[in-house]
Automatic annotation (TrEMBL):
It comes from the Bacteria. This is Ring-cleaving dioxygenase. It comes from Evansella tamaricis. InterPro entries: Extradiol_RC_dioxygenase (IPR052537), Glyas_Fos-R_dOase_dom (IPR004360), VOC_core (IPR037523). PANTHER family: RING-CLEAVING DIOXYGENASE MHQA-RELATED, RING-CLEAVING DIOXYGENASE MHQE-RELATED.
Length: 329
């Protein structure tokens, strides 16, 4: 079997929104993230793909959204990514965010320590399930750097992606993929409350471990499969070093007869897609070349950025998109 390096952690999470303008307002104005790239869904050029991250879109900090204007409401269920975590530096930051969510009338829970770290669950305007998690005790993968022009003070700013939570119907299938194929380590478990009942979450980590390199899995076999829509997660991506390493992962999947996309050019990174046995979509993505490939640092996200292989379609692409003003105020 092809030898590969350990996955470095979470690269990005991609979700679905029905309204790019409201999405932009929430994630930049309320959450204080920077829009580092305003582009298109490369598989459907009629809709936006928005990338929010730290100051320059470092790997492991990107929360991205495909705009699907007619997306129905999500029917929550199993075999899906049921929560995305966002990292903050300290426990104190969560107190700031709890107050901020109250002021902005954002639906949120109380600060919790179920996973062994201080965390604060909340939802966006489309019921996207999100969790702020403190990095105060983190000793693994380092976070990013908040943008100094954010609406949120730098000391409380979001510094990257934390653990994703998967809900699956058959835990053993997901665990086998994570540990035997993808090289994750099973780290332990913890108890959490789900719909008023105590449930056990299983924790897996990769690379240096820590907040930015974990997957938490909950088994709920009694639920129907989630029907995705606005407010649901499309896929989670994990970090690989470069294109050479990505090629090794393609070979590894092929040797294990795991159906996959093969090499996919995304311009800002190179990708590989496949589904784990419960049907959740995974992506492996390279750390580079990054979002400053076609824009300067100071103006990231302000204009519609198209990979070179779409530039000859710019006029027709722009004609299909609703105008979205993302100029820095």
């Amino acid at each position: 079997m092809t030898l590969v390096k350990a996955l470095k952690g979470i690269h990005h999470v991609s979700a679905i929104t029905a309204n790019a303008k409201n999405n932009y307002n929430f994630y930049t104005e309320i959450l204080g993230l920077r829009l580092v790239k305003k582009s298109i869904n490369q598989d459907d050029t009629s809709v936006y793909h928005l990338f929010y991250a730290d100051e320059r879109g470092n790997p492991g900090t990107d929360l991205t959204f495909f705009e699907i204007p007619n997306a129905a409401e999500t029917r929550m269920g199993t075999n899906s990514i049921t929560a995305t975590s966002l990292r903050v530096s300290t426990d104190k930051a969560l107190q700031y965010w709890k107050k901020r969510f109250t002021e902005y009338k954002i639906e949120h829970d109380e600060i919790s320590h179920e996973s062994g770290r201080a965390s604060l669950a909340f939802k966006d305007f489309e019921n996207q399930r999100l969790i702020l998690v403190s990095d105060e005790t983190n000793t693994g993968v380092e976070g990013g750097k908040p943008w100094d022009k954010s609406t949120v003070p730098v000391e409380y700013g979001i510094i990257g992606l934390g653990p994703v939570i998967l809900t699956v119907s058959r835990l053993e299938l997901t665990e086998q993929m994570l540990t035997e194929i993808m090289g994750f380590r099973k780290k332990g478990s913890y108890k959490g409350i789900v719909d008023g009942m105590e449930r056990e979450f299983f924790l897996y980590e990769t690379g240096e471990g820590g907040t930015g390199a974990e997957v938490h899995v909950l088994e709920l076999s009694e639920l129907p499969r989630e029907r995705s829509g606005r407010g649901s997660v499309h896929h989670v991506a994990f970090r690989v070093e470069d294109e050479e390493e990505l090629t090794k992962w393609i070979n590894r999947l092929n040797q294990n007869a795991i159906p996959n996309s093969g090499f996919v050019e995304r311009y800002y990174f190179k990708s590989l897609y496949f589904r784990e046995p419960n049907g959740i979509l995974y992506e492996l993505a390279t750390d580079g070349p990054g979002f400053e490939t076609d824009e300067d640092f100071d103006t990231l996200g302000e204009s519609l950025a198209l990979p070179p292989y779409f530039e000859n379609q710019r006029k027709s692409i722009e004609a299909k998109l609703k105008p979205l003003n993302t100029k820095t105020k």
